[in-house]
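ARCHIVE CARD
CATEGORY: sequence design from structure
SOURCE FIELD: tokenized fold
FIELD CONTENT:
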């Protein structure tokens, strides 16, 4: 999955999302609720397919609410944005996960904010194309965590897992500890804390999944003493 040099920035997409939520308020009020309890912390400009991915995190309490009440995954049709050059409204493909905007499909992700007037959004008759949620990274993680029982797996955030590469090593997130930091597992089953702005970004905190549950009971406060050390 290739990345363009960043041109469209987080602030542009955050502005667009707020305008979109306002435009859809009467028909989809749940979008504002999820936006209010999530933290939008980065964007990725993707080359294949050409799109803008929105990364966000949730507090433990918010994650519980989202995972219980907002189990959605759909493409939204019926939204158009004004093309600055043609002065015409163009339909745009938007994908939502857990009632939060997750992907904007566009041929020009790198200059999306210059091509479109993000203040000019037109909502016609909307249609939701519900999608089957498939996360290939989740399947990998579930195999790695095979020693754990069902109750232990339910204390992790595997629905949101994704791969992170650090120093040519793959990690798979299992808990979001906010601000772009995670608890993750490698392919050998070792558990790490990943802190993106730390002098040691990846540090082993348990040698295997079972050992991890000797320090984690389902409350992220259990991990406070080891996260930033």
């Amino acid at each position: 999955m290739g990345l363009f040099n960043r041109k469209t920035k987080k602030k542009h997409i955050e502005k667009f999302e707020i305008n979109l939520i306002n435009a859809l308020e009467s028909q989809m009020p749940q979008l504002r609720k999820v936006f209010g309890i999530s933290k939008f912390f980065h964007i990725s400009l993707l080359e294949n397919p050409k799109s803008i991915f929105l990364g966000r995190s949730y507090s433990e309490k918010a994650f519980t609410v989202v995972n219980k009440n907002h189990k959605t995954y759909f493409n939204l049709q019926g939204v158009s944005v004004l093309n600055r050059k043609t002065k015409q409204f163009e339909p745009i493909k938007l994908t939502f996960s857990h009632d939060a905007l997750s992907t904007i499909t566009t041929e020009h992700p790198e200059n999306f904010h210059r091509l479109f007037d993000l203040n000019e959004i037109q909502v016609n008759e909307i249609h939701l194309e519900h999608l089957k949620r498939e996360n290939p990274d989740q399947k990998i993680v579930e195999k790695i965590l095979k020693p754990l029982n069902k109750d232990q797996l339910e204390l992790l955030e595997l629905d949101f897992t994704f791969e992170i590469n650090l120093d040519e090593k793959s990690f798979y997130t299992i808990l979001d500890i906010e601000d772009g930091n995670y608890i993750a597992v490698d392919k050998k089953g070792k558990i790490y804390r990943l802190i993106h702005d730390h002098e040691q970004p990846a540090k082993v905190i348990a040698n295997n999944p079972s050992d991890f549950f000797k320090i984690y009971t389902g409350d992220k406060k259990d991990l406070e003493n080891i996260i930033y050390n």
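CARD ANNOTATION: Residues 136-227 form one domain. DSSP finds eight helices and twelve strands in the chain.
SHELF: design records, drawer C
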